[in-house]
């Protein structure tokens, strides 16, 4: 059953790929709102389904109820999360421009930009690591949108070493699930100077879709099961303290 939830997520991603390839980049105007309003339902249902399985039983009905019951909080949290990402991107871009200008002024522009880029990347990763459990907090702990971020930050702060290890493993699983399909996709298209995507091998493109649907679904189901199980272990550890 958990594989069904994983498939929904992967299908949404592959749909956006096909729309971009065959209908052009303007379809992102459709895909972004679709992602924003559909992801909270899918994510809430998926986490609820996994939590139900870990507790003893789950079903497609669990997925639907989880998506509906947690939709408002998940939507609010998604907006906050996207806002955090946009804010970090703006700050990072400004810092990079200033650092680059200063670096070129003293003759070490490329080195300065590279160092600042690494620092910014690490900073983004740290922020993401602290807020990553907001969705589990909403579904499993019944938190509201803002409270879910507070709980996530608190749990990570109390279990920093184990969360770092978890985050590395979760990232590796994500790359494993998306890597093969992404490699095939990149070998099947070319990107023009105007930003358009041109298909150079239709068969390879559809092979990338098939590989991602199969491998991505399996790995996504496993990775998110690990995610929810780890979150519940953090909660149990807090109760035992």
TrEMBL record:
Residues 2-234 form the DUF7847 domain. Pfam families: DUF7847. Keywords: Membrane, Transmembrane, Transmembrane helix. The keyword Isomerase does not apply. InterPro entries: DUF7847. The chain crosses the membrane at residues 34-54, 75-104, 110-134, 155-176, 205-231. This is DUF7847 domain-containing protein. The lineage of its organism: Archaea, Methanobacteriati, Methanobacteriota, Stenosarchaea group, Halobacteria.
